[in-house]
User: What shape does this take?
Amino acid sequence: MASRSQLRLIFMQFSSITFGMAAIYSLYIINKSGGLIYYKDYGSSGRMDTNDSLRVASLWHSMHAISQQLSPVSGCTGIELLQADTFDLHCFQSLTGTKFFVVCEPGTQHMESLLKFSYELYTDYVLKNPFYEMEMPIRCELFDINLAQAVQKDRVAFLGR
Amino acid sequence: MIGVGKMKQYGNVLDKPLNKGKQEVSLSAFAFLFSEMVQYNQTQVDNIGELERRLEDAGYAVGARVLELLCHRDKGNRRETRLLGILSFVHSTVWKVLFGKVADSLEKGTEHEDEYMISEKELLVNRFISIPKDMGTFNCGAFVAGIVRGVLDGAGFPAVVTAHFVPMEGQQRPRTTILIKFAEEVLLRETRLG
Amino acid sequence: MAPVAPRSGDAIFANVERVNAELFTLTYGAIVRQLLTDLEEVDEVNKQLDQMGYNIGIRLIDEFLAKSNVSRCVDFRETTDVIAKVGFKMFLGVTASVANWDADGTCCSIILEDNPLVDFVELPDNCQGLYYCNILSGVIRGALEMVSMKTEITWIRDVLRGDDAFELQVKLLKQVPEEYPYKDDE
Assistant: This one.
């Protein structure tokens, strides 16, 4: 587990992104053992380096697991939304244990459906690609293209409110 | 016999009536099967050329059967005997049955008399596939090239058929062109037939 | 608040993109031919088909979960029911039924009356030991393993071997409880 100061450091980095125009800052996919297999930055500033994104992924994986144990609700499947002053973090975990999470401007709408849609894109453009090896980092051009379009659409919907 | 199901029994597969070809499965089922076929074939080869050849061979087996099936069912046991006829049969009839649409275009090669091209903006088999950078110009359309070769060969039009990505202006993704190069005998016969 | 699982896959199948079953059938046939050429022994082909099915199953399960809106099944009985009524329909456009439950609810049969894999197929004399549809058992085994169920799947009836239907026996070996790996500090 990362220390408290590490946690703060990373969250401060998130906050620096809020000065950008975009509502969605970044999207992560972690495999069932907690390894980061996809990370994409959609913010215009405050990009995170590889080490930090890996740290956020493993941190979130652990926190998610702990939240299931600590939850007073029986059958809890883990944190779905974390709200902070400067960002929201929405998380979706599939029944197979893959986690999709998005970091966005506080109050950004429709993030559950964006995550659900990302999961569908993952089943199409990652899992049906013969050159993708299970549990490994995702390098599939078609997934990037389609996901970027989905995020864009969401951004448009957000701006159009 | 215990609990006879709805499935009708035929002593011989040849007694079974040929269905109309209207049955469907999900594109996903096909895509997963195709993906697994590519993965299996990757374990059987040392280089990309061999992978292309193996996918083409698999496609050839499909093409040979498609020809028989369609000639019997859709063409009253007749088949095309002229070059343009067989090309249009591939581009229209075969494509429609296998991929649900007529191919985007059929063109004659500009540089060589014996070359024809069938192009598709997005080949069905490539719908979900991203080729890794280290595989260069490899195209899973080799399977479709094999289907085309199987149809042509079975109909008496031997040819070398290959699949290529062709970048398109203003498009993010390249299209796939199936290049058909007919054997010399085919062109000689065409000339004789006039 | 659990969403209601659809009773059948008809609506899903109607909404997904579909292809002519003949492309699927002939492609599968081409795969079986490749395996027979590469591996020669029918037993080896059976094993490889099962392995390929498993490889598909561990991927296909996510598509099933993402696009079927099926929620977590309460038990093995519900799981097999969903596979038969929703899974087979959603992917292959055919419906299967579940029968022959054992007393403790850990073993049953999935029965297929229609199977697009075997159109045009007849087993030649030298392939009588071939489980032509063995890929299906691998798919189910792989898919269930991804949702923590270890199963063993056996063919009971096979139309290509002269039976009147396809029957797959699905036996639950163990249900692995969900565990989260807690790694030490790195």
Observations:
- Residues 48-73 of chain B form the longest helix (26 residues).
- Residues 30 and 98 of chain B are 11 Å apart (CA to CA).
